[in-house]
Amino acid sequence: MSGTDRRFFTTPIYYASGEPHIGHAYTTILTDVLARFHRQDGKDVLFLTGTDEHGQKIQDEAEKRGVEPIELCDLMAERFEEAWKTLGISYDRFIRTTEDEHKAVVTAFLKRLWDREQIYEGTYSGWYCVSDERYWTEKDIGEDRRCQICGREVTYVEEKNYFFKMSEWQDDLIKQIEDNPEWIVPEVRRNEILGFLRQPLGDLSISRPKSRLSWGIDLPFDADHVAYVWVDALINYLTASGAIDPSKPDGEQGFDDVTGSWWPADMHLVGKDILTTHSVYWPTLLMGVGLPVPRQILAHGWWVVGDTKMSKSLGNVVDPLALRETFGTDAVRWYLMREMPTGGDASYTPERFLTRYDELANVLGNLASRAISMISKYRDGIVPDSASNGLESEAHGALSEARASIARLKVHEAFASAMDLARAANVYVEERQPWAQAKDPAQASELDETLSTLAHVLVVLCALFQPVAPEKMGVLAERLGLDGVPTLDQAIATEMAGRSVTSGNPLFPRVDPTWANSED
Ligand code: MSP
User: For residue 98, what pLDDT is reported?
Assistant: First the structure.
């Protein structure tokens, strides 16, 4: 039922086998920014994230650490939740695939597929990557027999498997993509998937024999097998939507009518590495049970370090929490959102981080400090009344550009427009020279206009930057004498005359400029 006033956004659920890093943080912050932007724009939002807790990867990692899989999952779920709280993530629901509710929905989903004769028993013989839990064909792996995702050596397996008749849905899937040009964004990824679908689509193995892997959800029709972890994981989105009630008898569980729930999701945000699972496996599985497909899938690019891939073994994994210690949460969020063109790739370098930080400090932070301190100094901290607003059209322009950029999923551009408004306001200060106006009693009403204009533009900036810088915009709202950060519409209409403002420490304090060198 997510109509025009509701938005359901999801992040991937992260493997509970490793610590959160900058790649996970990027997907999650991007989702958070969209969720916050839509809340700022008056929408009712469900923002879902969580952890992917079954499968071989987890079982192996737990064994390595000498703990039970569930102990590892409990620990990592807590780590992710803590990391997200520290990074200001406003999720509404944190799902864990080991939850009873989720297990029941997976069971109901698989039973429904089975009842609809969408599943058959077969034998899989071929190559398998333990780490990525993927089967590979001889052709895929080439002569060196390595996984096409992680590069690790694959092993040969021969086992009984259950298969989902994914191939039957190939034409419907192609039609879905062709009829909805914005269904997969960006276009380059859409074309990749369409290219992939030019080959005949195979059926999908949806089970693993318990003899090899026991850490998973039992198949409802064969207790010697567990669900393939990707099938289990993808269903999390449906579980959290509240569409399916597995406690009800077949036929009444919600598969025929999702009214009243959050299904279908408005947007799945994923990295490009997991696009096939989200835009091929997931929609066809949904078609198989007769449910609507998600409304949109956004595949973002890859963060690299300098020009090398980030990897544990190279020891160059960037820790967002460490960056946060030095610069604060909002600076990390700002950098990630502003530096990576949404959908493209980007390279992390400490120099670029510093450049982006300086933008926050010198443009937005500086504007806030000088405007508030001038209102304090020249008007005893009370925003003067003035009929005219010198930056009105710029403020409206920035709001509509930001809205349009978010609608086009160009998050980096939305915040570029916001920063441009702050820049324009700094230019306005230079042009108006309030310090000179203050010296000349004949210019009292001009000074009122300057200060009132600046107070208004700060409210608009506060609302515009809130999705990316929620912590500092909360502080700014307080200093402006507001009752919390206003929505975009409220910001434009906020009456500032007569409010008392308060100065404080710089919102984005200067940092040691040699920091970047010490990071190399
Ligand atoms: N568990 C699966 C997802 C299941 S969703 C039903 C998974 N988990 S993951 O822990 O590997 O995290 C995946 C997310 O992190 C993806 O969106 C992926 O693109 C993102 N990133 C991991 N490393 C990344 C970078 N270096 N750069 C950008 N994002 C990357 O896959």
Answer: 98
Helix axes 329-339, 350-359, angle to 10 degrees: 110
Q: Low-confidence residues of the chain, pLDDT below 50?
A: 1-2
Q: Which residues line ligand 1 (CB under 6 A)?
A: 12-15, 23-24, 26-27, 52, 233-234, 236, 270-271, 273-274, 302-303, 310
d(CA 418, CA 364): 9
What is the structure's pLDDT at 369? 98
What distance lies between CA 364 and its chain's CA centroid?
24
What global pTM score does this model have?
0.94
265 C-alpha to ligand 1 centroid (Å): 19
Cα-to-chain-centroid distance, residue 108: 28
User: Exposure string (b/e) for 353-388, b if CB count within 10 Å is 16 or more?
Assistant: bbebbebbbebbbbbbbbbbebbeebbebebbebee
Give the residue, out of 11, 21, 24, 105, with the most ligand 1 atoms within 8 A of its beta carbon, to mutate for a pocket test. 24
Ligand 1, atom 25: nearest CA belongs to which residue?
A: 23
**C-beta separation of 50 from 13 below 8 A:** yes
pLDDT in the model for residue 2 = 43
Using DSSP bridges, classify how beta strands 119-129 and 218-219 pair: parallel, antiparallel or unpaired.
unpaired
Q: CA distances (Å), 275 to each of 188, 190, 284, 343, in order?
A: 12, 10, 14, 12
pLDDT of res. 519: 65
* Ligand 1 mean position, distance from CA 25 (Å): 9
Query: Looking at residue 138, what is its pLDDT?
Result: 83
